Amino acid sequence: MDVETRKSILMDAFNELKEKWSVDERFLSSKEEEPSTVEGLPESKVNDLLQLREKYKLDEIGFVFLVGAAVGFYQGQRNVKTVVREMLSTVNEVVNSFLRRA
Hints:
The chain has helices at residues 3-20, 25-29, 43-55, 60-101; strands at residues 37-38, 41-42. By secondary structure, the protein is mainly alpha-helical. It has one domain (11-21, 35-101).
């Protein structure tokens, strides 16, 4: 398989993963604890990766690339969620201080 074909397959797999794992408002505002993880990813996400591996017939190197990209993508989403929570907490503190003064 040539390099361009491999690159195209990996990008297709990653784009499918991004669509499936896209962040929405409910994810950002949920206060639920993080689910148990396997090497930094929730078990359901690991299952998604295994399904993509089978669907796209990825070899070991391709799968390692996809896992690395997926971990980075998921950790980025978690970081966004943390920042949003901190901002909401700050806004709530400011509003509460105004309400106490009123």
